[in-house]
Amino acid sequence: MRIRVLGSGAGGGVPQWNCRCAYCERVRTAPSEVRPRTHTSIAVSADGDRWLICNASPDIHHQIEAFPELLPHDGVRGTSIGAIALTGADLDQILGLLLLREDKSLRVYGTERVRSALHDGLRVLPALANYGGVAWESLTLDMDCSLADRTGAPLGLRCRAFPVAGGPPPYAGHRDQGQLGDTVGLLITDALSGATVAFVPSCGALTDQLTELLSTADCVLFDATLWTDDDITVLGVPGRTGKSMMHMPLAEPGGTLDQLRLPHGRHILIHINNTNPLLVEGGPEQRLAASRGWEVAYDGLELEL
Ligand SMILES: [Zn+2]
Which of 11, 40, 57, 283 has the CB geometry, 3.0–4.6 Å to 271, for a possible disulfide? Predict the structure, then answer.
């Protein structure tokens, strides 16, 4: 199984267009010290030919151009994107669907809660029906689903959506809160080799059940939005704490580095906000994360399991 990190930044990317915080400015002036990052998304393939894209980010055009394996292999028009799977319905996770509207057979996997937000809340699925349309496939929580490509042929991958602490996207926030399936992680298994990768770009809290599931994966890509709960407020942006956005901090007592100790495999931090000091290459935060067994994802990182 091959994995390519298409993007590793949180909402707004790094740098964010309306931000002159210390880290955004360092990307602009010293990109060797703080790398630019597009919105978080990964590509996974069992055969190296057809790819599953996890989350359709607003940067998907740029991400495809940066990874030519996603371009058509044969003929003038086409794509090597076999299917898309979603971990939620927030704009950073789905805006790419609009950008792929030229596609005539886009197959998209997500939970029923995500489908309902996109259909009834954002009305993006009815809008796309006037273009190429989306072939929606609902994922049942905690059940393995064999994935198919755009033609219906097996992708050689299984996908299990598992609930994580989160909520509905802000545009659907008036709906019933606290329902499972608004925010999920994805456990993707190579049907042939059995290799597994867990993709959890957003997580508000750890449970024993989640830790147990992540302990089984050969590779875990996990939410690294914030270093401390108040990364953003200390920069002068009121109200935006990790708790309010349902992202666990990395470095606080009870945070991810403390709580999430995994016995084997590769552990990679992803979905890094532009206010997070973990962005500084070789800085004390990256060294502390490394000492706990965590690598830091970057755009273009490739893994083979
Ligand atoms: Zn910034």
Answer: 40
